[in-house]
């Protein structure tokens, strides 16, 4: 569903195609500087064709904004936008002139606003996974407007006269005027992946629901359908539509998802795809393919006809047909070498990656049994050898090649290929076992042979059979009565069945999902808390300006009494607090300077876990609904202190323990998650862990409440942590458990898949941490379930 909306742009091409001679494009220059995927590009305000903004999945350099032939802006997963200017010495090349910092997560779509008297170099509009739309002054690189309102990732931005219109995974379109939201409406039933304005004045949006919609204001004029039938072909087609809804032309050539489409007044079209190619089209025919060392997220024309591409290797590239603008031969050779190395790294022999095979020196080690095979890399090929036990040498068998059309993609175990090789976790600290299976096999046969090989109890048989049937997609299985049990030599025993079983697939066994119950932070250093509160109180008392905010001696004594009650956890059922105790702590938090409030906040964290303390606090919250929100605002203001953020997030985490707070937590989930959204990238690992625990508890609560909007926001935030390379292991684990639980029992599995959660699961399975591997396996298995 991701490519259909990218064909929106071809609506604009009616009447533009003309016969021209075609010259091949060649590399002009590379724009290097982003630390991750280049994600988005954008068109000149003077260009008669508005930009088609790409979807924003995954990472790297993700977008291009072609402000003019002299200036290009690119966005990236590294959270930056870079502006590139034409070199003064070499007019073929661009150099980075500005780096725009302001987004807290991946930056995707871009759009440029023409120069004005107030902004002589124009402005730039950007959307991000952090849910915000920012407007930048290109003179000084500063943010002049921050547009907040979307609940999830911003996927598209476009200009409508003086307004900005944005699209989002939250299924809405929003219109912004002079920095303010003026209208918002639900545009589709699934994530809206792109929006743009047509020359005729209408807006058009594209969605994961496989439709395009034409808008006049908030009124839908027409719905375009027709891409749904191509979903099984990974949406690799491009369609040209008339505004009447008629499909005028279909272009087929890409072998994977198409992420971007752009057109030039010459009649040429360029498209970028996950198949690593930017394809150039003339009159519906592909006339050239530009190969890249990664996914091509975006591709756009310069006014001159040159093409700019954004690639997942973190580099934007400019391509030209003009002889005097082509790169030096050395640069072209280096790029060709890069392509060769990339292809070599992905080449498979016998289902194995060539670059992961051992070298020929591996044959210096003797084999362990006669006939043992070993595949080694010799040059660009994989060569198989067999161990000759009698002569103690490796005999060459021959070159290993992949079979036709995906045969080489079948998994291999112990030198044999199978339709499936399942990971089976039998628990009890045992290692993961590999279970091979071919569709042609009797699943009872496969299960019994495997149990015998692994020396496991026969009692596992039916569970293993159900697992095989579920995960191999076999809804019905007819038992063959001629099958002989390898354990007894007799027919296999199938409980409550004679010779036939219509198997109802069992639910897959997951290691870590769904999460049941909530987590809390229930350990406190009470002596340290008291020491710090006393120190801060003495400081206030000696300060003439703040002495009235300090606690009296009797109040200090009362704090010590509170601590004494909290330390005696075995008598929580029989101890009580007074309203004055709660009021005292809340007054300290509200009245003391921000730099001094965290010890009192930490006491409230523990007080929440005391049944009577929690009930008294809830009464205060009921009487003043903004009480906790005011505290959150205080600790998250500019120059927020990590200690305040940490203790406040921990308070919120512990609130989930008491059902009285569940309604309040649900009602204010958006404000709370927005307030602490930057915590995921904090260098403070304790804060990372507290924030990920907050998300996990929210996942549990909002699944129970069937709150789809809230689940979607938690999912988006958890994905940020899961994709953060620097995230602490425990923080990443809890975020992954939240993601898996939301997908399994929540209402957002489809949204998670749209967010490319499969790549997150794949990355987790490649981790060195056992529990990350396990939860990655859970999510991967969940993705494959219908």
Automatic annotation (TrEMBL):
GO terms for cellular component: cytoplasm; nucleus. It holds the Pfam family PFU. GO terms for biological process: proteasome-mediated ubiquitin-dependent protein catabolic process; ubiquitin recycling. SMART domains: WD40 (SM00320). Residues 1-22 form the signal peptide. Its main location: cytoplasm. Residues 511-782 form the PUL domain. Keywords: Cytoplasm, Repeat, Signal, WD repeat. Residues 386-482 form the PFU domain. It is found in: Cytoplasm. This is Phospholipase A-2-activating protein.
């Amino acid at each position: 569903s991701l490519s259909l909306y990218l064909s929106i742009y071809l609506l604009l091409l009616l009447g533009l195609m003309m016969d021209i001679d075609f010259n091949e494009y060649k590399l002009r220059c590379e724009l290097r500087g982003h630390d991750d995927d280049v994600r988005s590009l954008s068109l000149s305000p003077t260009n008669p064709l508005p930009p088609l903004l790409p979807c924003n999945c995954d990472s790297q350099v993700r977008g291009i904004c072609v402000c003019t032939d002299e200036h290009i802006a690119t966005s990236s997963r590294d959270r930056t936008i870079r502006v590139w200017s034409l070199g003064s010495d070499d007019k073929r090349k661009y150099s980075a002139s500005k780096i725009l910092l302001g987004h807290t997560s991946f930056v995707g779509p871009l759009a440029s606003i023409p120069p004005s008297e107030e902004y002589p170099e124009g402005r730039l509009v950007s959307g991000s996974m952090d849910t915000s739309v920012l407007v930048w002054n290109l003179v000084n690189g500063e943010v002049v407007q921050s547009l907040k309102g979307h609940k999830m990732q911003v996927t598209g931005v476009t200009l409508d006269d003086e307004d900005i219109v944005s699209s989002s995974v939250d299924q809405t379109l929003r219109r912004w005027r002079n920095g303010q939201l003026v209208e918002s409406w639900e545009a589709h039933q699934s994530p809206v992946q792109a929006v743009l304005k047509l020359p005729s004045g209408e807006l058009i949006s594209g969605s994961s629901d496989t439709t395009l919609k034409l808008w006049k204001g908030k009124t839908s004029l027409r719905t375009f359908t027709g891409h749904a039938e191509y979903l099984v072909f990974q949406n690799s087609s491009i369609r040209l539509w008339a505004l009447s809804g008629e499909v005028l032309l279909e272009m087929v050539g890409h072998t994977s998802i198409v992420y971007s489409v752009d057109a030039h007044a010459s009649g040429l079209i360029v498209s970028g795809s996950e198949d690593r190619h930017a394809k150039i089209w003339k009159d519906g025919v592909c006339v050239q393919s530009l190969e890249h060392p990664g996914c091509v997220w975006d591709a756009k024309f310069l006014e001159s006809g040159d093409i700019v591409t954004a690639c997942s290797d973190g580099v934007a590239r400019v391509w030209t047909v003009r002889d005097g603008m082509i790169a030096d031969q050395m640069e072209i050779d280096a790029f060709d070498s890069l392509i060769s190395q990339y292809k070599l790294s992905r080449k498979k022999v016998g289902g194995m990656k060539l670059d992961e095979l051992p070298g020929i020196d591996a044959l210096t080690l003797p084999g362990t049994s006669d006939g043992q095979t070993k595949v080694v890399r010799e040059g660009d090929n994989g060569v198989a050898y067999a161990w000759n036990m009698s002569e103690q040498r490796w005999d060459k068998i021959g070159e290993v090649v992949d079979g036709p059309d995906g045969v080489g993609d079948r998994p291999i175990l112990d030198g044999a290929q199978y339709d499936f090789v399942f990971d089976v976790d039998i628990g009890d600290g045992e290692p993961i076992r590999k279970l091979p299976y071919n569709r042609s096999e009797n699943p009872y046969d496969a299960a019994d042979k495997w149990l015998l090989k692994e020396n496991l109890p026969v009692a596992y048989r039916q569970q293993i059979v159900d697992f095989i049937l579920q995960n191999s997609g076999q809804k019905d299985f007819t038992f063959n009565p001629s099958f002989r049990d390898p354990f007894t030599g007799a027919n296999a025993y199938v409980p409550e069945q004679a010779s036939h079983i219509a198997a109802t697939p069992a639910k897959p066994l997951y290691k870590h999902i769904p999460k049941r119950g909530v987590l809390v932070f229930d350990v406190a250093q009470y002596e340290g808390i008291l020491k710090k509160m006393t120190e801060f109180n003495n400081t206030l008392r000696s300060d003439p300006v703040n002495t009235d905010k300090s606690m009296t001696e009797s109040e200090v004594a009362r704090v010590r009494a509170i601590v004494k009650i909290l330390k005696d956890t075995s008598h929580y059922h029989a101890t009580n607090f007074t309203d004055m105790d709660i009021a005292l702590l809340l007054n300290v938090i509200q009245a003391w300077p921000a730099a001094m409030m965290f010890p009192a906040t930490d006491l409230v964290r523990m007080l929440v876990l005391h049944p009577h303390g929690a009930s008294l606090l809830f009464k205060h919250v009921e009487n003043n609904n903004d009480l906790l929100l005011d505290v959150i605002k205080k600790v998250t203001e500019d120059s927020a202190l990590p200690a305040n953020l940490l203790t406040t997030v921990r308070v919120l985490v512990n609130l989930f323990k008491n059902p009285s707070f569940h309604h309040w937590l649900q009602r204010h989930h958006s404000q709370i998650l927005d307030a602490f959204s930057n915590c995921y990238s904090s260098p403070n690992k304790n804060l990372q862990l507290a924030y990920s625990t907050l998300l996990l508890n929210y996942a549990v609560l909002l699944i129970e409440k069937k709150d789809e909007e809230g689940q979607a926001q938690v999912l988006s935030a958890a994905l940020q942590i899961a994709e953060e390379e620097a995230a602490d292991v425990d923080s990443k684990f809890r975020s992954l458990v939240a993601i898996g639980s939301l997908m399994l029992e929540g209402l957002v599995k489809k949204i998670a898949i749209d967010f490319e959660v499969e790549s997150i699961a794949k990355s987790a399975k490649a981790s060195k941490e056992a529990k990350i591997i396990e939860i990655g396996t859970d999510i991967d298995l969940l993705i494959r379930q219908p």
